[in-house]
Each structure stands twice: as structure tokens, then as C-alpha cells.
Amino acid sequence: MKYCKKCDVSINSPVSRCPLCYATLTGKDNMPEPVAYPELAQAAARYNMLFRILLFLSLTASVVCVTINLVTTPARLWSAVVIANIVYMWIAIGTAMRKHAKLGHTIMIQGISLAGLIMVMNLFFDTRVNWAFNYALPFLFFSVTLSITIIVIVKRMAIRDFILYFILTALMGLLPLLALAMGLVTVIWPSLVSAIYSGLALVSIFIFADNATKIELKKRFHI
Amino acid sequence: MSNAEKTRDIWYDLDNAAKIFPSVSDEDNTNVFRLACELKEPIEPDALQQALDTAMESFPYFQVVMRRGLFWFYLERSNLRPAAKPEGERPCSRLFYKQVKELLFRVTYFQNRINLEVFHAVADGVGAFDLLRAIVYQYILLVHRGELPAQPPTLDSEPPPTRQVEDSFRHYYNPSEKSSPFKVRAYNLAGTLLPSGSIRVISATAPTPALLALAKSRRTTVTAYLAALMICAVYHEMMPKRASGRTISVTIPVDLRGHFTSETARNFFSVVDVGYNFADQGGDFDEVLASVTAQLGEKVSAGALTGRLNYNMSVQSNIFTRFTPLILKNIILRIAYHKAESATTCALSNMGRLTIPAPFSDYIDRFSCLLNPTRIHRWKLCVCSFEDKFILNFTSCIAETSLHKYVVRHLSAAGIPLCITCNGVNEDEIL
User: Fold this and answer.
1) Separation in Å, CA of B422 to nearest CA in chain A
2) Which of B69, B91, B110 sits opposite A222 (nearest CB)?
3) pLDDT (tens digit, 9 = 90+) per residue, B400-411?
4) Nearest-CA residue of chain B relative to A98?
5) Residue B425, pLDDT above cutoff 80
6) Model pTM?
7) What is the pLDDT of residues B343-367, one digit of tens each?
């Protein structure tokens, strides 16, 4: 046990200076003081070079494209599509590299970000035909719901883990109906396919749900 | 259906106080607290594991993992088996990661000490102490069976499982009597931050009777005395002149089980804030102490506490809050938490007298408790007493120790003999 004269306290840790006032301690005896906490390995600071290079390249590409776009063809903003693609790439990398990624979660994020990319491309690239609302979005939502359906059927035990994403993607599949009602759609059948498939998927959950699924639904959607 | 699947059917929604923690926790703001028990002999790992397994049978509520719903987080029962491991991380290190299904408490050991660290969304200090006491009880029963009487006294602190999981906030909620706590930003501590993920722990041990006598001689409680002392420490050691108009306030959790009947292991506490503004009032310790004592007397009453409880519950029950998707709620809660935390300067928690029945207490040197400091509450004090030892555990995430020095020197000068221990903080890295 050591002693700090200035603070008038005894110090029972293996230190040479007072942890409170930094004064030199006087020793009462030569018994070594016990260590109160284990010594910890210092965590090395993470520095991901590849990540930083990619980030810098993305930024450079965006700036260069916007500049060329504005100087040469200011009437057509094609650089928005470049930026949208870069943003999509980052979202895709982000979800793919996640340590504890959940398949359902990843599929849903992919669906949402692809939908965003498609809308930007249609808006800035090819404005004459409304291919996004007519074809691309309905088929995207259809395939997202379909892929989750397949997973649920193949991995029978996994229903509980996918139920939230199954319902959310099925609800997304109903969105083309909204676009239809707003008059954004000229080719009707893809939207109808997406909406009918999603609607049936939602109904199937309630028809086939066993007790465990009902409990899972209650858990996931409790308010 | 398999057993594991059946277990998953059991779930609990988070109680009122717990709802915020998963949204705001990260590497530094872990919202983990530690309760520890120091025995008089080194810990035997195998016996500890066995004791832990036995103790868990009486505390099934702690056997949970955090899951995400569309609107709220919730706790789901799990079959994961808690493992007692050697202490290998800094105290109160992170337990909760989004998307990870791990238990929300850990039991570690170091030399003579058993540590129980708990994520605050699962339980509060009182609920967690029942678990620690059960582990220690089983451990001593196992290691010292031969020396104990044939019929050792039992623990009366193991409430039936249905009572453990009760949400007492909901039970006592009465929307007609709510009082909104109006809050202004208090002075927030500055100082040199330690590298992310490390904290400084300084413990002071004092004789309990001497400290009680000191508080009694000033006609106040130990909690009020320490709160006043913390306020003065911040004012004299940290607060720059330009901020002197700001109030310095200490937030103190109050166990509601003392005011309402409840045996829950989940959170059931409220907080009271005591503040002092040196620009408006006199500057010496006696005046601060008188003000803090008066504030605590007024705010720690069943009436004043229900107002706060009802207000917090009404926010949670609000229809807009309930139907906001979790992804947005996380952002809103983070802002609200930051704002609420900024309304106070630092935190003080008094766990009170911790006990264990007689022949068992002979094997125990002390119980102690630690809080995790945050980027706003950079200095926290958690105190408890075990028999004649009163343990003050300071935790901070700043390099400066002048605040600790102020409190310790004041107590030394008042005639209280103190013994200090500390953890190792690598000074070269910060200065």
C-alpha cells in the first residue's frame, strides 16, 4: 500500500504516481499492490485502404462526369445516372459486406435501391417512353416477392425469419397498382401481374399461418 | 416443432425505460452497467460456470436476445447458454449489436472478483443484483459446502418468474396525472476524451459508519452529500468562466420498487435531477448541500415520481410514436436522448446497502457497481455499501482526474480515511 501526502489517501494499485493529483507516492511497505483490472490489449485502429480508394474514386468520377455533362450537354443531365449507379454500388457493397447480414433484409434493400436506380435512369436517360413504370418496376417487385417466396418454400423452417420481409416486399408489389391509379402506367399487364401475385402472397400468409407464425407476426408488428 | 422454436414463442416488449437503449447504444455509449462481487479467495472457473447454470434456472427472464420488429425492438427467449469467461475487455464494454442474437448480459471473473454486466434494456441495477446474488450464493454453496450448515439460509430474493417479467411501468401508468419535466440545457463537461472504447475507473473505499455519520452531522443523506460534492467539483475544477451562468446538475436514478409494490427484474426506476446555479446563488459547499437536500426531499416522493412516470409512458403510448417505423424511431430517439442527456451534467447512482444472508457474507469482501460514462455524462459515480465498506466507483471517459481529486480531498479533509484503486489507462496515448 502506498500513500499520497497531498490527497491524504492510501493507494492500493501498482502505480508510482497518485492517480488523482499525479504527485509522487510514498511507500509504506514493500508489498506489491494488487492489480484491480486485467491489462488489455490495445485494439489497433482500423484503416481500410481499399475502402478509401474506392470512396475517392467514386467522388472523382462523379465530379468529372458532372463537369463534362454541364460543359458539353447541359440540356440532358446524364451524369445523374452515373451518380445514381455509384450510390447503388455503395448500397450493394454495404449490404453484401455486412457481418451479420440477413438474407431477407438484403433482398429487400436490393429491391428498394434498384427501384430508385430504375426511376432515376428513366427520368434522366430516356424520357420518351415510361418503361420504368410500365415494365421495370412491376417486374422488379414481382421478382423480389418471388425470390422470398422461393426461399420460404425451400427452407421450410425459415418462415419466421422471413415473415417480416415477406409481408413488406408483398406490400411493395402492390405499389404498381398505385401507379396505375395515378395514370403513370400505359401498359397495364405487368402491373397487374405484380399486384395479383403480391396480393395472393399476402393472403397465403394468413391462410397457411400456423400458431408459431401468428406469434411471430404479433412480435414483429406489435405497436 | 423443435424445442428451440418453442422457446422463440416467448417474447417481451421492452418496458418504458428500456425502449430507448437499443436505439442509442454504440461502442462508447454502451448502456451497460457492471455489478461485481469480490470474494476473499480466487475464483474457480468451473464452479462459477456451474453456479451460473443453477442460478439461471431461477432467472429465466435474463435468457433473452434482442430482435427487431417493424415498430419496436423486443426481447425474445433464447436457448443460448451463458458462459463464465475470464475478464478480457474494459469494464461495461458493449453487449448489444443490432442484428446479432447474443445474450444481453455476461459473467466474467478476474482474480477474486465475479462480474455481472447487463445491458440496461433488460434489467436495472436492482433486478440484476438479484441475479448476481443468486450466482454468488450458488458459487459459495458449491465451493464451501463442507463448511456451511446442513440447512443454509435461502435467498428470499428470487421472485416467481411471472413477477420477474412484469412491466411495472405499465401497471402503474395513469395518464391523467402526468407532469412534463421542463428541461434546459445544463453545463456539459469538457475535458480530453480518452481513445474510443476505453474508460477510466477509480474506486475509493471508505468506512460506511464514518460516511453515514458525516451525512448525519449535516442533517442530510449520503446521496445528497455526494451529489452536492459532485456539483462543487465540477464548478471548481472544470467549469470555464464563460459557462458560469449554466446550471450544474446531477441526475440520480430512483428505484421505484421503494415507492410502488413490484418484484420485477425489468427496469423500474425513474430519475430525479438536482441542479445548482452558482451565478444566482452563493458559492460555498454548505449552500449547495442545503439546496440539493431540499430538492431531493421534494422530488423523491411518490407523487412527484408518478408525474414523471406518467409523462414518459404517455410519450410511449402516443399514437404517432407507436406507428412510426423503427427505422425512423431510431433517429428520433437518438436526438431525444441526446437532448435529455444534455439537460444534466453528470450522473450519480446509489445502489444502497447490498446484502447476502449471514454465513455467505463471511466469504465476501465487497460488492461494487460501475456505470458506463457517455460522451455527455463524461463523469459518473456509482456507490454502494457492503457491511462496513462503502465503495465509491468513479468512471469517466476523460483524461483529467481533477474532479475525482476534488471529491476525494474533500472527504479526506472531513476525516474519512479513503483507500484508492484504479485501472490502467495508458497516459502516453492521450497526452
Assistant:
1) 6
2) B69
3) 899 999 999 999
4) B99
5) no
6) 0.89
7) 899 999 999 999 999 889 999 999 9
Contact residues, chain A, for B111 at CB < 8 Å: 34-35
Query: Nearest chain B Cα to A1, which residue?
Result: B419
ipTM surpasses cut 0.90: no
pLDDT value at B159 more than 90: no
Fold exhibited by the domain B3-157: Chloramphenicol Acetyltransferase (3.30.559)
Secondary-structure class of domain B184-352+370-430 per CATH: alpha beta
- Which of A20, A112, A157, A163 is most worth mutating to test chain B (most B CB atoms within 10 A of its CB)? A20
How would you label A151-187 residue by residue, b for 16+ Cβ within 10 Å and e otherwise?
Answer: bbeeeeeebbbbbbbbbbbbebbbbbbebbeeeebee
Confirm whether B3-157 and B184-352+370-430 share one CATH topology: yes
Residue-wise pLDDT for B308-339, tens only, equals: 778 878 888 888 888 888 889 999 889 888 88
In this complex, do B100 and A43 lie within 8 Å of one another by their Cβ atoms?
no
Using the Cβ of B71 and the Cβ atoms of chain A, whether some distance falls under 8 Å is answered with yes
- The answer, for B8 touching chain A at a CB cutoff of 8 Å, is yes
Show residues of chain A in contact with B72, CB under 8 Å. 222-223
Q: Is the pLDDT of residue B9 over 90?
A: no
